[in-house]
C-alpha cells in the first residue's frame, strides 16, 4: 500500500511528466530509473499512459478532432496562398509553421498557425469577422495578424507576423535579470494588453510562451485573440471542456475563466499577474492538477495565493519582493474580480510607482509606509547629512559615545531638513492619490459598461449561439444606445467610453456613427470643462476626421476654425495638435481652395517636423497631403519627393499604419506614371495592392480603391487584359460593400471604371458611370474642386456620342469650378487637359478655327517635371493635324501628323499608350488623304486599326471608327476588293459610332 510520502512523490512526478512529450518523457523516465523505487516507477508509467489515453478520448468526444498524424502538413505543402518552410512548434490545439506566400505577391515570411480543428457550419464567416477586428491591432508590442481564412480544402489557417525571439521567462532566466529589469519588460506587455482592451479585444491566453522578447529587448505578444478565434460552437459544456475548447493554458487562467463566466479585462489582469509572479519569483503561485473540473475549481478558485516573498527561495530575492511587489501581485491575483486591479493600466501604474520609488496604490497608506517611501527617494541627502555630522563630532573629540549620539542627531536633522519639502510633497501626493482613486473609479465604470454591453447582448439573444454570432458592429451599436442612459454619474468614464466607441466606429469605416458619438463627446466636454478647454479643441479635430466622408462635411471647417480659436487663445502654435489641425484644414480645403490647401499642408509639415519628438504618424499624413496638393497644381517632381518622404516616415514607425501606407504607395505610383516612369509605377502599384490585401484584407475600403487605381494605371499603360478585370471587380465590390449612394469610395471607383470604359470605346457604359459620379458629387460636393474633372470626363464622352451642346455646357462649368478652386495656384500647364478637350469639342462641331485657338493655349511641361516628349504634345499635334485638315490646309495637317508619329518611339521608351498611338496614326492617314495621297495613307490607317484591334474591345467605338476610316481609305485608293474584305462583319452596338475625330484614349 502506498503511503502519503509515496503519493506526494507520484503526484509531483506526474505533473513533471505530463509537461513532457514523447522522446523527452522517455529520457526523463530513464533518468529517474536509477534513483527511484521500481514499483513507484511502474505505477508512474501506468498513470502517464492512462492520463494520455483519457485526455485523447475526451478531446475526441468533444469534437473538433485531432487530424491523424499521417495527414499532417509537411515542408513544401501549400495551405491557401502560403508555402510551408519548416515547423516552428506544435501543441495539442495546433502547429505553427514558418511559411511564405507561394503566389509571388509578397516575399514576407510569416508564422502560419494551423489548428487541428474541423470547423462547424458558419464558422468561416465568423473567422473572417475576427480577422478584420484583429487586423486593427497595430501596436509595436503586438505581433500582427496578417491574414486568416480557409484553404481550398476547408482547412483553417492564420498568418501572423514572424517574430524571432525567446519566451519572456527564458529570456530573463538566461540573462539572470534583476527584478527591476523584469518589471520593465512586463510594462511593455501591459502597454500592449491595455491597447487591445481599449479596442474591446481580450487576449484570454496570456502566458510566457505567447510573450516573446527580441534581440533588442522588445516584447512582442503572440496569439492576440486567437483563443477567441478557436472557441468551439456548441451547447453547455463542463468547465474543463470549455477550457480546452478555448485553447487556453490552464495554469494562467482566471477563476471566472475556469467557471465559464462572462470575461472582462480583469481576466487578462489575473493572467498577467500569474505571468508576473512566475517571472519575478521563478515559480507559479500554484500548479493546476490535470483531472476533474472540481479539482480545477479547488486549485484556482479555492486556494489562497501565497505571498511572492514566501515562495522565493533566494534571500535577496525575498527581500526585493517583500512589500510593494508582494502587495501588487496579491492584488492582481485576487479571486474576486472587484478586488483586483480594474484595468491593466492600473496594474502597470503600480509597477511604475515601485520602480520610481513612488507610492504603490496596493499598499496601505500608513505613516510608516510614507516615511519609507521618503527615505527611499532621498537616500543621498540623508546619507550625506549623517556622514557630515559624524565627521563634525569626531573633529571635536567627543569620543565614540558622543559620535553615536551625533550620528542620531544628524540623521534627525537631515530628516527635519526634509520635512518642509515633504509637507509640500504630501499635498501633491494627496492630489495624486485622489487622481489615482478617480482613475480607478473611472476604469471600473468603463469596464462595467463594456461588460454590460455583452450582458445586454446575451439578454437580447437568449440563444447562446446567436449571442456568440453577434458582430462587432452590433455590439458597438448596442454600446452607443446604452450611452443615453449609462454612466451619468461618472462623466469622465462616459467620455472615455465615447472616445473608444468613436474610434472603433471610425476604424470600421462607419463615419456617420463615429461623427455622432464625437458630437456627443464635444457637448459633454463643454459642459464639464468649458468651451475654451484644450480637450474641446482636440475633440473638434477628431470630429473633423469622421465628418470627411459624411453628408455633414460642411461642418468640418467651422469645427476646425473653433479649434484653432481655442489653441490661439491658449498660445499653442507649435504643438502636435496644431499640426494635426493644419493637416485637417489642408485636407478639407483641397476641395475648396487648392491655394489654401497648399499653404496649410506646408505649414503642417513645418510644425510637425519642428516638434522635439516628431509624431511620425501625423508627419507622414502631412507629407502625403503636401504631395497630393503639389501634384494637383502641376508639380509632379515635388509631389514625388513628398510622397517618398511620407513613405520613408511610415517605414520608420514601429508599426506601419497600413491605410496610410497604401494611400502613399498608390499616390506615388500615379505620380510616377504622370512623370512617364511607367515600369516603376506599375511595379509599385502591384506591390501596394498585394500588401493591402495581405494586411487589411481584400474587402477593406483601401484595398478596393487601390485595385481600381491599379486597374486605371494598367489600362493607361496598355495592359488592358489585366486592367479590365480589376476595374470590374473593384466596381462590383464597391457597390456591394459601400452601396450605390455612398459618397466617398463608390464615386472614386466609378470614376476609374468610367475612364476605362471610355478608353475602350464603351461609351454608353462610360456615360452611365460618370453621370452617377457627378450626380453624387453635385449633391455632396456642390461647387467643390473635386466636381470639375468629373464634368470634363462627362463632356468628352458626350462629344464622342455627338451630343456637343450638352458637352459644351459641362466643359465650361467644370473649367469655371476648377479655376475658382485653384485660386491662382495652378501652374499654366495644368490647364492643358481643358484646352485639349475644348479643341475636340470644336472639331466635333466642325469649327476648325476655334479648335486651333484652343490648342494655341496649350503650354509645354517643363522637362524638370515630365521628360519630353510629353503625351500632351503628341495629342496636341494629332488634334492640330485634324483641325488643319478640316480647314483645308493639307500641308499643315501632314506636318503636325508626322510630328506626332515621329515622337511615338521616344514616347514608347517610357511606356506604351496605345490609344494615343492609334489616334496619331489615324490623324496621319486622314492628313495624307486630305492631300489626295490615298495610297500613301493606307499604311498609317492600317497601323491605327491594328492597334485598336490589339488593345480595344471588339465592338468599341474607337475600333469601329478606325476600321471605318480604313474602309473609306481603301475605297478612295481604288482597292475595292480589299475594302470588301476589310468591312466589319458585326453590326454596330446601340451606343453608336464615335463622332469625328476620335477622342484621345
What does this structure look like?
By secondary structure, the protein is mainly α. Among the domains are: 4-62; 76-161, Phosphorylase Kinase, domain 1 (2-Layer Sandwich); 166-363, Transferase(Phosphotransferase), domain 1; 373-468; 870-982, Serine Threonine Protein Phosphatase 5, Tetratricopeptide repeat (Alpha Horseshoe), CATH 1.25.40. Strands 1-2-3-4-6-5 form a six-stranded antiparallel beta sheet, covered by helices on one side. It has a three-stranded antiparallel beta sheet with strand order 7-8-9. The longest helix has 62 residues, at 399-460. It is elongated. Mean pLDDT is 78; it is low at 53-70, 118-126, 227-247, 288-294, 365-417, 454-470 and 987-1001.
Fold topology:
Elements: H1 4-18, H2 22-33, H3 38-62, E1 78-79, E2 82-90, E3 94-101, E4 109-115, H4 123-134, E5 145-150, E6 156-161, E7 166-167, H5 168-175, H6 179-197, E8 211-213, E9 219-221, H7 226-229, H8 239-245, H9 255-258, H10 265-281, H11 293-302, H12 308-311, H13 315-321, H14 324-332, H15 344-356, H16 367-377, H17 379-396, H18 399-460, H19 464-468, H20 472-482, H21 491-507, H22 511-529, H23 534-547, H24 556-570, H25 576-589, H26 594-609, H27 616-633, H28 636-651, H29 658-674, H30 678-695, H31 701-716, H32 720-737, H33 745-760, H34 763-780, H35 787-800, H36 804-822, H37 832-844, H38 848-855, H39 871-887, H40 890-902, H41 904-908, H42 914-930, H43 934-951, H44 957-972, H45 976-982
Amino acid at each position: 500500500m502506498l503511503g502519503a510520502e509515496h503519493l506526494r512523490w507520484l503526484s509531483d512526478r506526474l505533473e513533471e511528466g505530463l509537461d513532457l512529450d514523447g522522446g523527452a518523457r522517455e529520457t526523463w523516465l530513464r533518468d529517474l530509473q536509477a534513483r527511484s523505487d521500481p514499483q513507484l516507477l511502474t505505477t508512474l508509467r501506468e498513470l502517464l499512459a492512462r492520463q494520455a489515453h483519457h485526455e485523447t478520448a475526451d478531446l475526441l468526444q468533444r469534437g473538433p478532432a485531432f487530424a491523424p498524424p499521417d495527414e499532417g502538413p509537411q515542408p513544401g505543402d501549400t495551405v491557401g496562398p502560403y508555402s510551408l518552410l519548416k515547423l516552428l512548434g506544435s501543441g495539442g490545439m495546433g502547429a505553427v509553421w514558418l511559411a511564405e506566400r507561394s503566389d509571388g505577391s509578397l516575399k514576407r515570411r510569416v508564422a502560419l498557425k494551423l489548428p487541428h480543428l474541423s470547423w462547424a457550419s458558419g464558422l468561416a464567416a465568423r473567422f473572417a469577422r475576427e480577422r478584420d477586428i484583429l487586423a486593427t491591432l497595430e501596436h509595436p508590442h503586438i505581433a500582427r495578424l496578417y491574414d486568416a481564412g480557409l484553404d481550398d480544402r476547408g482547412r483553417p489557417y492564420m498568418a501572423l507576423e514572424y517574430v524571432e525571439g525567446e519566451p519572456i521567462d527564458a529570456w530573463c532566466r538566461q540573462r539572470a535579470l534583476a527584478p527591476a529589469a523584469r518589471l520593465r519588460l512586463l510594462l511593455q506587455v501591459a502597454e500592449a494588453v491595455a491597447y487591445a482592451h481599449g479596442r474591446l479585444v481580450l487576449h484570454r491566453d496570456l502566458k510566457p510562451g505567447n510573450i516573446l522578447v527580441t534581440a533588442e529587448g522588445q516584447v512582442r505578444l503572440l496569439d492576440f485573440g486567437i483563443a477567441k478565434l478557436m472557441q468551439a460552437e456548441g451547447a453547455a459544456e463542463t468547465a474543463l471542456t470549455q477550457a480546452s475548447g478555448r485553447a487556453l493554458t490552464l495554469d494562467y487562467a482566471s477563476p471566472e475563466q475556469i467557471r465559464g463566466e462572462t470575461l472582462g479585462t480583469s481576466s487578462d489582469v489575473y493572467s498577467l499577474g500569474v505571468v508576473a509572479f512566475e517571472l519575478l519569483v521563478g515559480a507559479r503561485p500554484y500548479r493546476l492538477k490535470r483531472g476533474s473540473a472540481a479539482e480545477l475549481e479547488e486549485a484556482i478558485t479555492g486556494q489562497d495565493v501565497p505571498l511572492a516573498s514566501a515562495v522565493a527561495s533566494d534571500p535577496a530575492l525575498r527581500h526585493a519582493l517583500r512589500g510593494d511587489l508582494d502587495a501588487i501581485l496579491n492584488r492582481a491575483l485576487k479571486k474576486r474580480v472587484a478586488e483586483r486591479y480594474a484595468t491593466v493600466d492600473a496594474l502597470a501604474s503600480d509597477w511604475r510607482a515601485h520602480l520610481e520609488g513612488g507610492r504603490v496604490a496596493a499598499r496601505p497608506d500608513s505613516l510608516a509606509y510614507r516615511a519609507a517611501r521618503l527615505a527611499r527617494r532621498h537616500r543621498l541627502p540623508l546619507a550625506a547629512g549623517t556622514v557630515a555630522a559624524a565627521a563634525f563630532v569626531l573633529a571635536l573629540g567627543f569620543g565614540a559615545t558622543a559620535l553615536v549620539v551625533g550620528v542620531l542627531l544628524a540623521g534627525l536633522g537631515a530628516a527635519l531638513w526634509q520635512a518642509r519639502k515633504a509637507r509640500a510633497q504630501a499635498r501633491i501626493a494627496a492630489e495624486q492619490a485622489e487622481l489615482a482613486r478617480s482613475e480607478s473609479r473611472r476604469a471600473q465604470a468603463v469596464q462595467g459598461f463594456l461588460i454590460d454591453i455583452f450582458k445586454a447582448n446575451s439578454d437580447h439573444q437568449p440563444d447562446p449561439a446567436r449571442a456568440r454570432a453577434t458582430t462587432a458592429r452590433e455590439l458597438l451599436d448596442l454600446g452607443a444606445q446604452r450611452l443615453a442612459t449609462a454612466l451619468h454619474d461618472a462623466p469622465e468614464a462616459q467620455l472615455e467610453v465615447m472616445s473608444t466607441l468613436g474610434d472603433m466606429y471610425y476604424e470600421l469605416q462607419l463615419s456617420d456613427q463615429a461623427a455622432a458619438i464625437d458630437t456627443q463627446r464635444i457637448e459633454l466636454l463643454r459642459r464639464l470643462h468649458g468651451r475654451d478647454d484644450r480637450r474641446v479643441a482636440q475633440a473638434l479635430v477628431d470630429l473633423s476626421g469622421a465628418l470627411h466622408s459624411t453628408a455633414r462635411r460642411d461642418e468640418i471647417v467651422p469645427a476646425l476654425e473653433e479649434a484653432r480659436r481655442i489653441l490661439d487663445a491658449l498660445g499653442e502654435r507649435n504643438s502636435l495638435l496644431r499640426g494635426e489641425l493644419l493637416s485637417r484644414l489642408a485636407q478639407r480645403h483641397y476641395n475648396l481652395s487648392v491655394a489654401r490647401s497648399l499653404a496649410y499642408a506646408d505649414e503642417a509639415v513645418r510644425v510637425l517636423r519642428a516638434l522635439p519628438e516628431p509624431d511620425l504618424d501625423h508627419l507622414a499624413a502631412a507629407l502625403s497631403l503636401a504631395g497630393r496638393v503639389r501634384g494637383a497644381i502641376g508639380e509632379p517632381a515635388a509631389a514625388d519627393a513628398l510622397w517618398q518622404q511620407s513613405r520613408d516616415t511610415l517605414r520608420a514607425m514601429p508599426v506601419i499604419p497600413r491605410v496610410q501606407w497604401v494611400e502613399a504607395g498608390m499616390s506615388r505610383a500615379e505620380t510616377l506614371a504622370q512623370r512617364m516612369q511607367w515600369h516603376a509605377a506599375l511595379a509599385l502599384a502591384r506591390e501596394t495592392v498585394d500588401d493591402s490585401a495581405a494586411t487589411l484584407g481584400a474587402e477593406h475600403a483601401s484595398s478596393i480603391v487601390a485595385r481600381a487605381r491599379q486597374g486605371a494605371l494598367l489600362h493607361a499603360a496598355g495592359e488592358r487584359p489585366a486592367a479590365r478585370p480589376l476595374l470590374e471587380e473593384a466596381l462590383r465590390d464597391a457597390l456591394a460593400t459601400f452601396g450605390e449612394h455612398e459618397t466617398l469610395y463608390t464615386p472614386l471607383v466609378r470614376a476609374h471604371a468610367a475612364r476605362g470604359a471610355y478608353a475602350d470605346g464603351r461609351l454608353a457604359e462610360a456615360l452611365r458611370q460618370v453621370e452617377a459620379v457627378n450626380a453624387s458629387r453635385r449633391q455632396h460636393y456642390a461647387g467643390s474642386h473635386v466636381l470639375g474633372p468629373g464634368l470634363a470626363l462627362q463632356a468628352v464622352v458626350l462629344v464622342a456620342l455627338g451630343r456637343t451642346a450638352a458637352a459644351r455646357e459641362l466643359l465650361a462649368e467644370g473649367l469655371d469650378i476648377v479655376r475658382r478652386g485653384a485660386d491662382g495656384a495652378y501652374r499654366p500647364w495644368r490647364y492643358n487637359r481643358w484646352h485639349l478637350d475644348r479643341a475636340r469639342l470644336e472639331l466635333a462641331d466642325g469649327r476648325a478655327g476655334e479648335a486651333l485657338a484652343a490648342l494655341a493655349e496649350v503650354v509645354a511641361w517643363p522637362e524638370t517635371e515630365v521628360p519630353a516628349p510629353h503625351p500632351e504634345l503628341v495629342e496636341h499635334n494629332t488634334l492640330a493635324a485634324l483641325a488643319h485638315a478640316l480647314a483645308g490646309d493639307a500641308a499643315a495637317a501632314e506636318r503636325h501628323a508626322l510630328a506626332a508619329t515621329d515622337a511615338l518611339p521616344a514616347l514608347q521608351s517610357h511606356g506604351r499608350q496605345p490609344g494615343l498611338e492609334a489616334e496619331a496614326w489615324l490623324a496621319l492617314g486622314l492628313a495624307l488623304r486630305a492631300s489626295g495621297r490615298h495610297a500613301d495613307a493606307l499604311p498609317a490607317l492600317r497601323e491605327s486599326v491594328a492597334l485598336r484591334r490589339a488593345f480595344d474591345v471588339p465592338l468599341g467605338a474607337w475600333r469601329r471608327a478606325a476600321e471605318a476610316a480604313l474602309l473609306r481609305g481603301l475605297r478612295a485608293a481604288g482597292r475595292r476588293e480589299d475594302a470588301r474584305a476589310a468591312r466589319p462583319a458585326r453590326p454596330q452596338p446601340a451606343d453608336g459610332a464615335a463622332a469625328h475625330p476620335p477622342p484621345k484614349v
